[in-house]
Amino acid sequence: MKIWAIIEEEVKRNFRRINVLIIMTMLPIFLILILGVVFDGILGNGAPSIGDMKVYHMTIGEASYLTDNVNLMMDGVLSDDESNEYIQTNDREGTIELLKNAEITCFVVVDETIPEIHIYKNSLYNTESSLLEGVLGTFVSRYNAISEIVKVNPAAMSVINDEVGNYTKARSLDAEKIPNAMDYYGVVEVTLFVLYGVMTPFYGVFSDRRTGVSDRILSTSIKKRNYFLGKFFASILITVLQMGIVIFFSSEIMGASWGDKPLLPFLLVFTEILAITSVGLSFGMTAKNENAAQTVIHLVISIFGFFGGAYVSLYDMGFLGEIGKYFSILWWNNSGIMNYIYLDETKFLGLAFMVNIAIALVFFGIAVLKMRRMENFKNE
Amino acid sequence: MNIVKIDKLVKRFDETVAVDRISLEIREGEIYGLLGPNGAGKSTLINVMCGLLKKNEGNVHIFDKNIDLAMMEIKQDLGIVPQEIALYEDLTAKENVKFFASLYGMKGSVLKEKTAEALEFVGLIDQANKLAKTFSGGMKRRLNIACAIAHQPKLIIMDEPTVGIDPQSRNHILNSVKKLNQLGTTIIYTTHYMEEAEFLCSRIGIIDYGKLIAEGTNQELQNLVTDRKTIVVKTSIGKVYDLRGLNEIKGVLNADVKDSTVTIETLREADVIGAVVNFFEKNEFPILDIQMKNANLETIFLSLTGRKLRQ
Lengths: 380, 311
Known about the structure:
The complex is a heterodimer of chains A (380) and B (311). Chain A has 380 residues and is α/β, with parallel strands linked by helices. Chain A is built from 16 helices and 4 strands. In chain A, strands 2-1-3-4 form a 4-stranded mixed beta sheet, sandwiched between helices. In chain A, 40% of the residues are buried. Chain B has 311 residues and is an alpha/beta fold. Chain B is built from 11 helices and 14 strands. In chain B, the strands form 3 sheets. A 6-stranded mixed beta sheet of chain B has the order 6-7-8-3-9-10, with helices on both faces. Chain B has a 4-stranded antiparallel beta sheet with strand order 2-1-4-5. A 4-stranded antiparallel beta sheet of chain B has the order 12-13-11-14. In chain B, helix 3 (93-102) packs across helix 4 (108-121) and helix 4 (108-121) crosses helix 5 (137-149). The A-B interface holds A 1-2, 5, 9, 12-13, 16-17, 211-213, 215-223, 375-376, 378 and B 47, 50-54, 72, 75-76, 78, 80, 82-88, 90-91, 95, 99-100, 102-105, 107, 147.
């Protein structure tokens, strides 16, 4: 009951702040609309074009059925578009130089002596080379499995040949499952604005400390942990409601897609809210200076947003983007959701869940420790 | 019956001793004043009593219950009016009172009724639905009190509730405190305004540097300082007085002017009244009224500590 009083007061006050409501609901909706329209032609509005690919390949050692099958498969993958080229070379160093200069898309080396397949990529062609890498990866997995079978049953070789043809279907993603700009920004602006939700618990606790309200509350017969949990649950509820409004408008009015099975993506967003609320709570408990804390929060969100692809897609960002993205909670969440919706892949989704939960636990722990040690909230 | 019993209480902040072996008892139904300058340790003492700070040594019993063992139970009958205006400015007056009362477990129609009563008591019932941020400083102070009384506590601790407000609101608050006490509530009232302590309190404890240096009724405290008396001269308004000459009169310890009243502290045995009157005549300062008084709390504090209350 006393927790509910804290939650009710916090929610009521938050929804009375019109500026906060506008920033947390209208702004993301507006951004989704604007970015969705502006980038519509760039991010694609149907099947991605995978033309203009120039792939060099070479074989080290004597070519065997491995080389033959790789070539057969790659020919199949690339043959549908006339602008694609699959060119044999024997000049390894020269080809790597061409790749560095972005004159070719990627370089496939079949080393028959190990045997092993290497793919050299240039990040400027991240999409195309990742697609080929994926196709090759799948091919190698199945090839290895069948090779083991061939050792005991040579007749299985025919299966390899039959299977090779199937990879040509992987050359493009299903047109129905490609995100257009509205879909993309519909997701990434939500995950971005969840980060701004850090302000709710931060202000909820910090302003109470600053004005002495927290001390007054704690001098009533409410337990310290109930006050603390009330703030935590209220902040979660507020951010869930705000993001619920954004998701409703972006998907129902603007048609942004969260996939056929949105439960897991929504659950992931919820765990992101848990993580961010914990961060805000611990900041609110520990911060000494409101302006300094606010500056740090905004800076970190901007960096996370940039590396998480919230403003522009991170493809072709080079080394900095490749490294920076791993430090952005947004990148994990966006990758998890996008890969799940459009590739039916759950690996990143699982990782993103783990990242969110880990952040939530660490920062919630910090906030709890601080709360237990604090005596007079105003003066600490 | 004692409502509060404090025994050799010590509270330290690192090396600083904020409360230094204070012992005191507060009886049911009294208004107990804690008088002392800023930083004397009054608020620290109060924060320990209401469970916000942990004591280092000593014992505190409130309602015959040990605060170490039954703080939650004690808090249920305790009301706190903090020194700062601790309210939610973006809630209405009614919502603020309801919120704080609900933290004591009040709900439903009782909550509604007691909220209205508290607002009525502080004279804000007509402003109940206005946001606290639209209130004047005095109104906020009154709302600050309403938030502490809606759950009808047996003991109310008021920590300098009149700081920074206009005389009208101050009078309203002082009268409210008297009224609350008449209704049976025990009150601990901290202040550094001696007039408030003199007006309100049945007993007063004087705190300085964390120590309780004197305690008793106003009369008992005056008796402590037997070597001094005060001459109060009322004169015309609007003049700027040069009192240097007064301080030079033999037997005068201190002379101070506030508004149109000149207060002169003297040694009790000194016969200075003639010299004071001469000083006024010589300087052509009109005397509208002149009184001889025993020592007031300000004098007592000065005598006990060598400092003024508001230093």
